[in-house]
Amino acid sequence: MKRENSMNERINIYQVAFKNLLRKKTRTLLTILGIWLSAWVLTSLLGFNRGYESALNKDIDNMGFQVLLTAKGCPYEAATLMLKGGTGLRYMPEAVFADILKHPEVEKITPMLMQAVFDPNKGESGGISAYLGIDPGTYPAMKSFLKFKQGGWFKEKETHQAVLGYEAAELEQREVGDKILIPEKNIEYSVVGILARSGTQDDGTIFVPIRTLQKDFAQEGKVTAVAIKVRKEANITTLENKLYDLPDVQVVSMAQVKTTIMSLVSTAKVMVFSIALIAILIAVLGVVNTILMSVFERFQEIGIIKSMGAMPWDVFRMIWTETVVLCVIGGAAGIGLSFALSKLTDLLIRRLLPYTPTGSLVIVNGSLALTTLGIVLAIGLLSGLYPAWRASRVRPLESIRSEGD
Amino acid sequence: MSAKAPALEARGLTKIYKRGAEEIVAVDGVSLDVRCGEFISFIGPSGSGKTTLINILGCLDNATSGSLKIGGRTVFDGAKSLSESELTRIRRVVFGYIFQKFYLIPTLTVMENVLLPFAFYRKEEARTDPMDILRFLGLDKRVGHRPSELSGGEMQRVAIARALVNKPEILLADEPTGNLDSKRSLEIGEVLRSLNERDGLTVLLVTHNPALAAIAHRTVSLRDGKIAEG
Question: Is the pTM above the cut of 0.90?
Answer without folding.
Answer: no
